[in-house]
Amino acid sequence: MLAPPANTAESTRIRLLHALNLLDTDPEPVFDRITRLLAQTLDVPIALVSLVDTERQWFKSAVGLNVRETPRELAFCDHAIRCSETMVVEDATRDERFSDNLLVTGEPQIRFYAGAPLRTNDGYAMGTLCAIDSRPRTLSVEHAQILEDLAQIVSREFQLREAALLSRSQLRVSDRQIKAAERKFQEVFEQAGSGMALVAPNGGWLKLNKAFKGIIGYTDEQISGLTFQDITVAEDLELDLSNLQRLNAGEIDRYELEKRYIRHDRSIVWVHMTVTQYVDENGKPDYYLAVINDIQARKEAEQAREEITQQLEQRVNERTRDLRQREAELRAVLEHTNDAYVCMDEKGIVTAWNRKAEQTFGWARSEAIGGQIDSMLSPQGSYQPLREGIQRYMTSRDAQQLGRRLEFPAQRKDGSTIPVEVHINAIHVENKTLFNAFLHEISERKLKEVKREREALQDALTGLLNRRAMMETLPKAIIAARGEKRSLALLFIDLDGFKAVNDVFGHDIGDELLKTVSQRLIDNLRGSDAVFRLAGDEFTVLLDHAESLDHARSVADKLRIAISAPLHLRGNTVHVQASIGLSLFGNKDPRTPEQLVKDADSAMYRAKRGGRNQVEVA
């Protein structure tokens, strides 16, 4: 695959830089705040917003530096804008690119440099947000994240100005298109089936759609002057305001809750609400978008079900007191409940066993009645906590284990095990104590929980394990390697040329490429090895049984060669390569999982700096 000519991309970048009207302009608070914050947070004497022009680098904002520009040929930032990620130079005197640079040998005697590219909407790097120190140092993961987050804020400001530039017809966006988009938004907002509202920071209503006004029963005139606090049921307001406070503090990016509104006619309606915050250019709350759905019918149904359940349990307790006269009626109620019903005496002997219990556990009524509940449902002892609870209740009337819902694995007659939820209570009949248990199979719920947990550890695009899975797997693998006195290896893989594929062929081809590369990694590894996708075009491979450094390197070269083979995607032939960092972990290695990952990552960057498409060992 051929990348676009460098001079074409550079000329486009320079034209866009000049069009943004940032060069040779007065300082602006929006940029000065960020450089001050960066210098203070990273404890560096110099922090810059640097713009790389044709022959110079010019500083839009500078802390600790009195000049406004330097020649481009001396600029560290000229190197940084060519990187896909943050460029870090820990000691410039030891870096062959900069050791004889006048800014290193002379003032300001640069030793440490960290620069994050500032990109436009199309990915062109206008310059960098950089931190500079006159002493060598290492950039921590936390400080790297802060630098990149602040660079994103500066990039966003550039992108907003770029959007403004485009809106002034630089890219021929016509008024007709804008108005059409506005009409479309208005149509979607107004015709949405869900209620939607734009809410001011003080809680006032800015705009309501038809569906939401239908939910709360207000017209625009009637709601004018009111806030969401005014029409929220008082008992629900504290939770709403607490979530809003966390949203404003940046702890969460959205929240969901169920609450009650007071309609215009004073009736109450339950709703499910999702709230998202939108901020202004200064990062302050501008307005909130609330999406509201009426769940009154569902709440009424839940209440009705709860009332039915409570009534059923009450009827069981009341009618058991007069078992002989009311036995037929009680049997009918219990036989048709959706839960398995089991009644036991104080010794755990079954005295009642309904049809649902037969279906759930496979024991016929005739087999169950008179038998021990333990031996039928829990021969391995998982039912023991309830048995102990029954005994404790009989001796001390301590009902801690009774009257609440518990989960345990129950064994069926055929030996299979199913998870159940049980609710048990005690009743007193003719000087005897009986225990009523309602058991409900929860296999489907457990499967959903397992599925959610599995999805949380899986990359949605490639199906590989994700970063979270890696950070859970790596500590266990290290413990096992130390215990078995063997070695393992971690490969950190970054694709060379992936961004160019995205730029030329689009993100759909880029996604297909990532999936194909993922399969190539799997096909060239053993079943005991693990592949993880961290983000973008970054992967890691855990070689669980690395026989030696040479063995690990040979596997890394095998993967590098496999990745480099041409890929045929949707009628296009594309090429990517891989820079791989290798970190070998011995059984006496004192490093933490985080250090192992960092070392492999650093080795990968050395591979990139060394010419790419190679393997470097940490």
How are the elements arranged and paired?
Layout lengths: L5 H14 L9 H14 L3 E7 L3 E8 L5 E3 L4 H5 L6 E3 L12 H4 L6 E8 L5 E9 L7 H30 L4 H17 L3 E5 L5 E4 L1 H7 L3 H4 L10 H15 L5 E9 L5 E12 L5 E10 L1 H25 L2 H13 L4 E6 L4 E4 L1 H7 L3 H4 L4 H5 L6 H13 L8 E7 L5 E13 L2 E10 L1 H14 L10 H18 L3 E9 L1 H8 L1 H17 L6 E6 L2 E6 L5 H16 L2 E3 L2 E3 L2 E9 L7 H17 L5 E3 L1
Parallel strand pairs: 22-23
Antiparallel strand pairs: 1-2, 1-6, 2-3, 4-5, 5-6, 7-8, 7-11, 9-10, 10-11, 12-13, 12-16, 14-15, 15-16, 17-19, 17-22, 18-19, 20-21
Write a short abstract of this structure.
By secondary structure, this protein is of the alpha+beta class.
| Beta fraction | 25-35%
Q: Calculate the terminal CA-CA distance, rounded to whole Å.
A: 30 Å
Q: From the coordinates shown, what is the CATH architecture of the largest domain? A: 2-Layer Sandwich
Indicate the radius of gyration in whole angstroms.
Answer: 33 Å
Question: What is the highest CATH level, the class of the largest domain?
Answer: Alpha Beta
Q: What name goes with the CATH superfamily of the largest domain?
A: GAF domain
Could you say which overall geometry the principal axes of the C-alpha atoms support? globular
In DSSP terms, counting alpha (H) and pi (I) runs of 4 or more, how many helices?
Answer: 21
**What structural class do helix, strand and pairing data support?**
alpha+beta
Give the averaged pLDDT, no decimals.
87
Number of spatially distinct domains: 4
User: Residue ranges: pLDDT <50 for 5 or more in a row?
Assistant: 1-5
The helix content is: 40-55%
Largest sheet: 6 strands, antiparallel
What's the CATH topology label of the largest domain? Beta-Lactamase
Give the strand tally.
23
Strand order of the largest sheet: 3-2-1-6-5-4
